[in-house]
User: What shape does this take?
Amino acid sequence: MIFHTFGDKNKRAVLFIHGMLLPWQIWSRAIEYFSKDYYVIVPELDAHTQDETSQFNSVEEEALKIEKYILENLNGKTYMICGLSMGGAIAAKLIMNGNIVTENLILDGAPLLKVSGFLKKIMKSNYISIIKKTKKRDPKVIERAKRDFLPGERMDDFFKLADRMENDSLVNMIDTIFAGTDIKKIKNEPGILFLHGTKGNEAVSKKAAIKLKEENPQTQIMQFDGYAHAQLAVFESDKWVDAVSEWINNKEASYSV
Assistant: This one.
């Protein structure tokens, strides 16, 4: 895992954790916006490192590595942690471990619930095939990726991580992401925003958001009708930044009254 930092280290810290098969640069717009007022940290997760090969073993291990960084470099405190898809599962695990504190937790399409072994088997097969064909630069797979998965300007970053991605890491991601998260009350009661769409597998995210709110009533759920998984953050990053920053501003304004 590699940590990229932006902005003034003396300011409040925010973290952005990317999703499965997404390059860390997917947060470029968020980095540009938030680094003006905050110290931004973006982990380049294991098996997604573009300049060296690394192994993804589990969501738990990724969370512990980020926890260690926060304890050693930020005195165990952050202002905000944002996680997209798999990054949301890592962020939730990180906070629910209870060893660090954050004022705000933003989850987008976080897959926090367990799925069947049958579905995991299908996902493993699909993702292994996608990465194999991406390494060969299969034109159909690349065009489909540009349409449904990642903007064209991020494809070179995706190629770099895909070329180093190993099948064992893919299997470990699926097994540990979809083993489910122990959703419980977060002891310091941070502000929580859970964003999700309504298309396809976002039904899983919707159920996770409801469960999280049951345990943490301060959770605000923001639903984007007609949007697929991670579509807002990946393809309409300006709109994602606007939604998150507006939520933060409204929350802070309510506290100051």
